[in-house]
Amino acid sequence: MLAGGTLLEQAHRAFSDRQVDFMAVQLAGRVIGLCARGQIGFIMGARFGFALNSQRPVETVLVANPLIITAGTPMREVLDQAMARQGEEFYEDVVLVDGDWKLLGLIRVESLAQLQSRLVAEQVEELRRQHDILRQQNLELFRASHAMRQSQGLYLGLFEGHTLGVALLDVQGGIHEHNRRLGEMLGLSEKSAGPISLAACVVEKDRAAFLKLLDAHSRGISVPPHAGIQPQYSNARRAVVPLLHRLD
């Protein structure tokens, strides 16, 4: 650190003794700027430079735009500001001050560059880790999807190839899906228009019991045997009765 009013001759000597590239300048306990070894060396080393400039105060050769950061500033913000500098300013140390602008120290730009590199490496590693997690999740999703397709294929194969008439019913006895065998038994066509009701295949006096049976099964309630429920049409007998057996 150099005090305000320090002569360039003294500043030149201080830089030679300390082997540093930058020193902060304070006046009345507050930082007023940053002084660079290279700039003082250039001024003092010019022809007649020492004779002409040695008695000038150090305030006359402060760097143009020093980066002065107050304590408590997030390190990411410090890095962003320091790394965004252009030209010679990029190589200047960062001045750290407290709330009263008293000097706390200088942060070397080399240290900031190393920190930046480490943070970038950590971010790259985190991205790689997330990529690995995403790849594993995608693999698991593919496996689950493949297993589901296989299961669906097996189900459809068993559903369509079953020797008995099989259907998916709602609680009103409406047929949502049926296999080919049930269609043959009931004389159903794939081009049949409108909803198809299996309840219509049960004689009217037993229809309420049939619907009650479907409702009970939909709610997981145990019900008495279905003895006595009869199909209304002769060609429906072989279809309805096996279905009722399966509901039990």
Structure description:
It is a single chain. The protein has 248 residues and is α/β, with parallel strands linked by helices. It has two domains: 2-112, Roll (CBS-domain); 160-247. Helix content is 48%, strand content 15%. It has helices at 8-18, 37-45, 49-53, 75-83, 109-161, 180-186, 204-218, 237-247, and strands at 2-3, 22-27, 30-36, 68-70, 94-97, 103-107, 167-169, 174-178, 196-197. The N and C termini lie far apart (94 Å).
Topology:
Elements: E1 2-3, H1 8-18, E2 22-27, E3 30-36, H2 37-45, H3 49-53, E4 68-70, H4 75-83, E5 94-97, E6 103-107, H5 109-161, E7 167-169, E8 174-178, H6 180-186, E9 196-197, H7 204-218, H8 237-247
Parallel strand pairs: 1-2, 4-5
Antiparallel strand pairs: 2-3, 5-6, 7-8, 8-9
The ordered H/E elements are EHEEHHEHEEHEEHEHH
Radius of gyration: 44 Å
Widest beta sheet: strand line-up? 1-2-3
CATH top-level class of the largest domain: Alpha Beta
Oligomer: single chain
Short synopsis of the structure:
By secondary structure, the chain is α/β, with parallel strands linked by helices. The protein has 2 domains: 111 residues, CBS-domain; 88 residues.
Annotation keywords:
about 250 residues; alpha/beta; CBS-domain; 2 domains; three-stranded mixed β-sheet; about 15% strand; rod-shaped
